[in-house]
UniProtKB/TrEMBL annotation:
Pfam families: EamA (PF00892). It is found in: Membrane. InterPro entries: EamA_dom (IPR000620), EmrE-like (IPR037185), WAT1-related (IPR030184). It comes from Citrus x changshan-huyou. This is WAT1-related protein. Residues 5-112 form the EamA domain.
């Protein structure tokens, strides 16, 4: 029952995020600036936890790892958020929530077709 309640709470958080993002876009927040602010806030909130909890287990931070993290951030996370906001700008928060639920099914179909 706890897992079900946690999943339900997570879905409500996603719905709230979709609504807040749509309101921000309607107010006039730039689709480029919004993901940057979102990532900076996430960095500020998650960095202390990552530092304390992974302090003894993490590998040393090398230049190669920093370059890989940079490209992962630009191509993976920032591009994903940018396309999400572009889609949300042209659609509704309800449609964004419905599409988010269908991502595992689409991923499965793509993986099956590509073997």
């Amino acid at each position: 029952m706890k897992l079900l309640m946690a999943l339900l709470a997570l879905q409500f958080c996603f719905v709230g995020f979709h609504i807040v993002s749509r309101v921000a876009l309607n107010i006039g927040v730039s689709k480029v600036v919004y993901p940057v602010h979102r990532n900076i806030i996430a960095l500020i909130l998650l960095s202390p936890f990552a530092y304390v909890l992974e302090k003894k287990e993490r590998a040393p931070l090398t230049f190669s790892l920093l370059v890989q993290f940079f490209f992962l951030a630009i191509l993976g996370i920032t591009a994903n958020q940018g396309f999400y906001l572009l889609g949300l700008y042209y659609a509704s928060p309800t449609f964004a929530s419905a599409m988010q639920i269908s991502i595992p099914a689409v991923t499965f179909v793509m993986a099956s077709s590509l073997r």
